[in-house]
Design goal:
alpha/beta; TIM Barrel; 2 domains; 8-stranded parallel barrel; 7-stranded mixed beta sheet; 21 strands; 29% helix; elongated
């Protein structure tokens, strides 16, 4: 095993309990889509199996199928886009679905064996959802299958990236009108809008369900979210990152002054060096853009700069400053080693992206080892 991910079960459970305390146990829907944000769908489900979960959110019906095969028998809500041709599969796997287009709605209405539906409205994200102005006509269209409508929902566009929430408040005001219209018609189902950031900083968005994704895994949605939460509370909620990414030194070798390192000859040694080969590259999910920059891994409790281009399955680190380094020594690409720590946000910032992308693009074939520390 040349590289692996360690998934801290205690951290995931602790993060879950924080949100159950914050929004209520019955409101907490855990989001295990996209391979549980890169942490491993099966691994995270097994970690949470004893927590009496009522709601799990997926993006693909194949994820719902996998959860049913793993033994989950409560609510699964598929939050990703669904096609009319997939409605029968949703029924087969007892999966509730988002409906957000007229084409799918018409197919859903025409199907006598239909999955429970959550009608999604676009209140300002301009992605999934019926236009918020359409809610009266959508309500009328739903009347023949009213009892199969399980929920009404929306999604925020700009909570994470700002300290002021004017746009979120606009979306909430639009959703309030939709909610009132459904309630006037006697609707008794669920209303929901909150994901991790809004669950943390917009209590008025909690409604009946909160879809907790990135923060289940111990990651703040953004620094702005963390600051906003701190501004409104005496102390910041404790979220513990659950993932570490580790590898091993495959070989150590000298490189003479003037020699090149890596594809394209983009790095030339300015002095005699000692380098370590690490069997991780962009296929595994480490961003190629981190080549030849001020990025580093941890070896022997020290920062070791990534040198030369990151290739498909390998990278090179400068270990000239280490007196003792050898094949099979532990390498930490993300996580803690001694007093040093590399966060997912650190690596994402080096790659000019966000930690959501970094984590969800970790290769699904990398072994996930569940730990309890």
């Amino acid at each position: 095993m040349n590289n692996w991910l360690e998934i801290n079960a205690a951290a995931i459970r602790a993060n879950l309990h924080q949100f159950q305390k914050l929004v209520g146990k019955q409101r907490t829907a855990v989001v295990l889509k996209s391979n549980a944000y890169g942490h491993g769908l099966q691994e995270v489900f097994e970690i949470l199996k004893g927590e009496n979960l009522k709601w799990i959110c997926t993006n693909y019906l194949t994820e719902a199928k996998a959860l049913r095969q793993l033994g989950f028998d409560d609510h699964i809500l598929n939050v990703g886009p669904i096609f009319a041709s997939e409605l029968n599969d949703a029924v087969s796997w007892k999966c509730e679905v988002f409906i957000s287009s007229l084409e799918v709605l018409q197919s859903w209405l025409a199907n006598s064996h239909r999955p429970k539906a959550h009608i999604k409205f676009d209140t300002g994200l301009s992605r999934q959802g019926f236009l918020h102005e359409q809610h009266h006509e959508i309500i009328q269209a739903l009347k023949p299958a009213w009892n199969d409508v399980a929920g009404v929902c929306t999604h925020f566009a700009n909570v994470e990236d700002v300290l002021e929430q004017e746009y979120a408040q606009l979306q909430l005001s639009r959703f309030a009108l939709i909610k009132q219209a459904f309630e006037r018609e006697g609707f008794k189902g669920l209303f929901h809008s909150a994901a991790s950031a809004s669950a943390l900083i917009l209590p008025e968005s909690h409604f009946d369900l909160c879809r907790i994704g990135i923060s289940l895994y111990g990651q703040w949605p953004s620094n702005a979210t963390k600051l906003s939460y701190a501004n409104g509370h005496r102390k910041v909620i404790e979220l513990e990152p659950a993932i570490s990414w580790k590898s091993k030194v495959q070989l150590v070798k000298p490189v003479k002054k003037g020699e090149f390192i890596g594809y394209g000859c983009t790095f030339r040694a300015a002095k005699d060096m000692k380098i370590a080969l690490i069997p991780v590259g962009y296929f595994e999910g480490y961003p190629r853009i981190c080549s030849n920059s001020q990025t580093y891994v941890l070896i022997g409790d020290n920062r070791c700069q990534i040198t030369g281009r990151i290739s498909m399955n390998m990278m090179v680190a400068d270990v000239s400053h280490l007196t003792q380094v050898a094949a099979n020594d532990e390498v930490v690409l993300m996580g803690r080693q001694g007093s040093e720590y590399i966060s997912a946000t650190d690596v994402a910032s080096w790659a000019q992206t966000i930690h959501y992308e970094l984590l969800t693009r970790l290769n699904a074939d990398i072994p996930r080892l569940v730990t309890n520390r």
